[in-house]
Fold:
Amino acid sequence: MSTGWRLLEYALLSAFVLSMALALLTSLLQPWIDRLGSNLDARRRARIYWWLLVGPALLGLLQIAAILTMSAASKAYPALQSVCVSHSGSWWHACVWHPLESTEKPWLWLALVAVVGGAGLLAVRSLCALYRAQQQLRALIRLARQATMPGDVRVVESPIPLALAVGLRRGHVLISKGLTAALSAAELDAVIAHEKAHLSNGDIRFGMLAKVASLLHLPRTRARLLAAWALATEQRCDQAAALSCGSPLVVAQALLAVERAQQGQRQPLQPLLTMAFADSFLSLRVQALLQPGAGSRFPLGGVLLVMATLFVLFSAGWVHHISEFILLFVPS
Structure:
């Protein structure tokens, strides 16, 4: 096997080991993170949980990039390869380039082809779903008439009370005619301000990225992280709506009014690339609006960043050794 294929073999394997290790560590630390994060404001919690969701996948990609970059540098500066000429057995051996002397491992390449093929299939299915969702949204937007309200707000001719933020790039707010009849003017303004906050924050875009990148997490951990991120996102938009309307009470009343209006109504299937008002976490959102906490100043984001940096520094050696063990000592 050529050195280039050995390098790719090692890069993929070490990135997978590092990503899964971080995913397992996140699962172990999640109860502690949840306890400390519950006292933080919604904006900080949304950022922290988003990075926790994408962290393992992002770290794996960075590991691959580091290995390939160092390999290119070692060709220009051969002295860099001398780090790997002899192994001292130390767990601090933190190289990202090593001319592996393994023979071909058909089982490993079959596994990598299966992983890459599965990821490719998932990507194709996701792209097809996104394309269908875009077509549905375009049709829905075309059917909606431009409202007299300012901004990209459109009214859908439907008796079902519904408010949606839609779109990845140029977003729109869709309000059903049934919702305009069920809410007062102040409550309707609060709903629109909430949905516009989703668009300005890019929540639909970041949500799609989080759902895809978080597939490396354990299923239960992934579900809890996604739910925590969604709650923080909704509460962040509730706060923005309260600031826009001048009263958290109006936003809370709007949440309860939409919930009452939707009772007994058959809700339509919510397409991708949308975020709905009063879709979930109703009691927690109302409680946060009516009884806002003082907010903790604990630098949880900074602490997690330092821990992630130390994890990368301390793990580089054992990731290298575990990867080499699998590549070099498992029989072909």
User: Anything to note?
Assistant: Confidence is low (pLDDT under 50) at residues 85-94, 96-103. Residues 1-80+300-332 form one domain. Strands lie at 145-146, 153-156, 163-166, 172-176, 274-276.
